[in-house]
Amino acid sequence: xxxxxxxxxxxxxxxxxxxxxxxxxxxxxxxxxxxxxxxxxxxxxxxxxxxxxxxxxxxxxxxxxxxxxxxxxxxxxxxxxxxxxxxxxxxxxxxxxxxxxxxxxxxxxxxxxxxxxxxxxxxxxxxxxxxxxxxxxxxxxxxxxxxxxxxxxxxxxxxxxxxxxxxxxxxxxxxxxxxxxxxxxxxxxxxxxxxxxxxxxxxxxxxxxxxxxxxxxxxxxxxxxxxxxxxxxxxxxxxxxxxxxxxxxxxx
Length: 252
Ligand code: FES
Prior knowledge:
mainly alpha, two-stranded antiparallel sheet, two-stranded antiparallel ribbon, 3% strand, globular, binds FE2/S2 (inorganic) cluster
């Protein structure tokens, strides 16, 4: 018969009865997100090497006032808030950075220390995380622009063509689309909040849509990771081509 310990865990930061290396799961997130944050900040403020005909960096799309008629700084700054807000308020990223950066708590069943009253996301400032569903609508607009850019990436001076950059942009937007449409907010929107599909307006198509989103949503964390890495690498590739560091290979 299993023996159940009645020992009460000591309170305080890092106190736990867990015997596994619980802190390891935070490391990849801390390393990758820090690197991504530093790189995107640098690229957003750099303001150059974002266009290598016919490729446009996803960090600069949609491209607004590239000639600096009224905006003297990097065009990326004008649009950064949309995708950044979407990721920052994403349910998966919230869990990850609350654990990895705020250590609040550092992991499941691990003490966070202090004697603060737990308010979760019901009080300022974290109650603002509830704007995520609105960032979802904004993200859909960005996805549409990036699909347009991916289609333009087949246009080599009026002629159809495929370069390595075309494929890079295509893979990037496919991954971003899956990440966006695997969102928890979308799942709730299409049917997650319903108790009875057959009683609801458009119940049958909503049920099918809900099933589709649920399938994607099951792996939301995976899509969050791969789409983040893909968008960073896509920008890097276009920057290297635009700066002349590498040459884009034309496949067709
Ligand atoms: S929950 Fe992650 S994008 Fe909406």
